[in-house]
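Feature request, filed as a ticket because there's no other form

It would be nice if the structure record came with a short human-readable summary line next to the tokens. Right now we just get the raw output. Example of a typical job, pasted below so the devs can see what we mean:
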Amino acid sequence: MLSQISDHTWYLPKDDQTNRPALGYVVSGRSSLMIDAGNSPDHISHFYGNVRSIGLPDPEFIALTHWHWNHVFGLSGSPAKSIAHALTNERLHMMQRWDWSDSSLNSRVATGVETAAAAEMIKKEMPVRHSFKVKPADISFVVQCSIRVEDLDCHLIHVGGPHSDDSVVVYVPQEGVLFLGDCCYENPYRNSSLKLTELQSVIKKLTEIDAKWFLPAHASVIEKEKYMVLLHRIEEIGTVINDANDFVQGRKRLETHYGRALLQEEIELADQFVKGNNEFDGAPDFKNIS
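Raw output as currently delivered:
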């Protein structure tokens, strides 16, 4: 069921069972924008049903926050015009050529192009995929793109960050709302790692955006001030880990810093920064994968 953030912004909450992210929605009059397309045609159909059930219009536009499957697979189930960063669209065009049968999916997991966790969720969310094709976006941009939803401005801003280099946020200044996508999370295609410099870069960009409410795609809506406290705490852990490239060394540095035993969440974050200090290339180069 849709939850309201402000007068003109809503979201469909996340569903962890099949890794469905929260889907954003901005509406004014008969004009509307959807943020992310969901992880399957069924997911976006569920979103449309919720929008229609409260008398709101189908989205005219869909903004994609990045290329990962659970944010883009629903695009094939919508007639709306879609907008994505150029890097996102480049990857969608590549993925459009791919076969999504179990055997092909398993092959891409074996070669490191797809993660085992994503493959498991894809199979669970979409048991039948024999005719499925990824749909690229209709419009692409490089730095920033703005969409007018009647009297509201919706700014698509490329921020990059640790999760994916194409990450985009959607800012609605009149509503004081920022849809974050996954821009601050670890990178599942880089061994679930975090890199401090990438996190600090996105923190700086988010700090400069004058929003009251943030919506991370895999959490609930939260006040900006509270979310920034969380991000700075993660940044502190990364700063303490510094250049450690061994799990034991990283955890020991953090234990010494805190002067106590680490919480499980702190251990996981420490390990993610250690992974980020080792050599990973980021998103796989899958141009020649079929």
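Something like this underneath would help us a lot:
The chain has one domain: 3-223.
The longest strand covers residues 152-158.
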